[in-house]
Amino acid sequence: MQPLLTLQHVKKSFLQPNQQLFGRKRNSIINDVSLNLYAGECLGIVGESGSGKSTLGKLILGLEKPDSGTILFDNINIHQRHNKSSMIRKHISAVFQDYTASVNPYFTVAQIIGEPLDIHESLSQSDRNKRIEELLLQVGLDHSFFCRYSHQMSGGQLQRVCIARAIACRPKFILFDEAVSSLDISVQTQILELLAKLHHQLGLTTIFITHDLTTVTYLCHRVAFFYQGKIIEEVNPMSQLGQVKHPYSQQLLQSVLGF
Ligand SMILES: Nc1ncnc2c1ncn2[C@@H]1O[C@H](COP(=O)(O)OP(=O)(O)OP(=O)(O)O)[C@@H](O)[C@H]1O
């Protein structure tokens, strides 16, 4: 079977601070990352703050360009300019940690969820509204949310709206970058339950980026431990988690188990 997403020897660096005008010194952030993700899989990428997880996510979403290496989605190189088409954009979606910054505060929920539908699908007004209602129900929100603004919702409710927006065009792949990290523990659990349900119902392929190994154990089929811009160890299947070998992975595991 062909992977849906392939990263081959991906590297990314940024100019060091205060080097933008005259300097050339760069910090290597992503150091030769290769991975395959198959349709229907949920891969967890776990690492500490600053390890480069979000940069890796941005590379996969096409928001940053690798210095070298290749990222293939459905066997198409997403960083070749002519491939950055709406066809690919329609099939790749994302949910970020900062749900407040992710939405336009002057938009109603219907406008937020309707935005990708307006870009990628030509629906009549009534079909568009029907689809938005369906999406609200799918993420556990009722009709009363249709006309609300972001400031009239809790964090958990707003993150549900962001999830509805992410699945609106039935993407093949969704990247979740610390998508539950800003929520209270009880709300985190509810959102993780929702994501597990949607993953199953919609046959999604997902990457779940987080610093929190516990959330990964809840959702993911396998996990890649990420340290200083590298995948240092992979666990597949999750039942093998107790057998991690790298000291960093062991340290993360122990912090979760409370040794
Ligand atoms: N556009 C950029 N220009 C310069 N440096 C950057 C840029 N984006 C990220 N970095 C640097 O890359 C490093 C990794 O950042 P990144 O956000 O990918 O880490 P992270 O593992 O996701 O951390 P966190 O969980 O705290 O968000 C940081 O040192 C950051 O300052």
Automatic annotation (TrEMBL):
Keyword Kinase: no
Any Pfam family the entry gives: ABC_tran
SMART domains recorded: AAA
PROSITE patterns with a match to the protein in the record: ABC_TRANSPORTER_1, ABC_TRANSPORTER_2
Molecular-function annotations in GO: ATP binding
Domain ABC transporter, first and last residues per copy: 5-253
InterPro entries, per database record: AAA+_ATPase (IPR003593), ABC_transp_ATP-bind (IPR050319), ABC_transporter-like_ATP-bd (IPR003439), ABC_transporter-like_CS (IPR017871), P-loop_NTPase (IPR027417)
Keywords of this entry: ATP-binding, Nucleotide-binding, Transport
Regions that span the bilayer: none
Family listed: Belongs to the ABC transporter superfamily.
Name listed for the protein in its UniProt record: ATP-binding cassette domain-containing protein
Species this chain originates from: Orbus sasakiae
